[in-house]
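Splicing factor 3B subunit 1
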Amino acid sequence: MRICFELLELLKAHKKAIRRATVNTFGYIAKAIGDLVHRQTAMAAIQHMALGVCGFGCEDALVHLLNYVWPNIFENSPHVVQAFMGAIEGLRMAIGPSKIFQYSMQGLFHPARKVRDVYWKVYNTVYIGAQDGMIPSYPRIPNDAKNQYLRYDSNSGTSDGGSGSSSSSSSSYSSSVVVVVVVVVVVVVVVVVVVVVVVVVVVVVVIVAAAAVVVEKQNKLYLIKKEKLLIVHTDN
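Tokens:
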């Protein structure tokens, strides 16, 4: 790998013979060490090249390199897997997470579990690195009879293919509002009834207490008059 990185500098030489010899040297190294290690080295080089030209308008060339990197997604060698994920991360920084998401989306729901696992690994890596940048590239899925995938603003109308679901959601919202209003009215009525009952009880208690006081005073006056009559009778 160190030799290949040194050879990358020779590709910048002005003489065509030097550049040609460098390319041939890459071929000799690939033949000596096999297609596997050479691809690992190539993906590591692509990672650093992508990070080096990030923001310089080289997206077309990097997508071309991505097309060579992506078939290595099913490699099992730990070093190759590490080089592949590093290249994907470098390309994500250079060409954006949306493009990587479009590549990974084709295998997220594959029937084979091993295929899904690899693609979900790439998706989770991109999601951790740039989850906000993936939002514009999410596919639009229309609503069906059971599920509602579209999201609507509270001030806007229905969107494409969502009139039925929107009407059902609005009807459910109105019914929930009616239920809330009914509950509030019932609570208010109950509170008013309780307050009225308490007031009536207090008034009755006050009236009974006042009547008891009046009756007691009348009894005292009657006893006083009776005593006076007895005194006059005894005097006579």
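The chain has a mean pLDDT of 85.
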